[in-house]
Amino acid sequence: EPQQTEEPAQSTGLFEAANREFESTESGSDTSDISEELSIQDGEGKSPGEAASGLKTGPEDSALPDTQLQKEERPTSTCYSSDVVGEVVKTMQHFMEKFSMDLFTVTQAFLKNTGEVETTLYFLQTGQRLDGYPVWSREDDLELQKDDECVRNKLIAKFGAENVAKRVAFRKS
Question: Quick one: where's region Disordered (predicted)?
Answer without folding.
Answer: 1-80
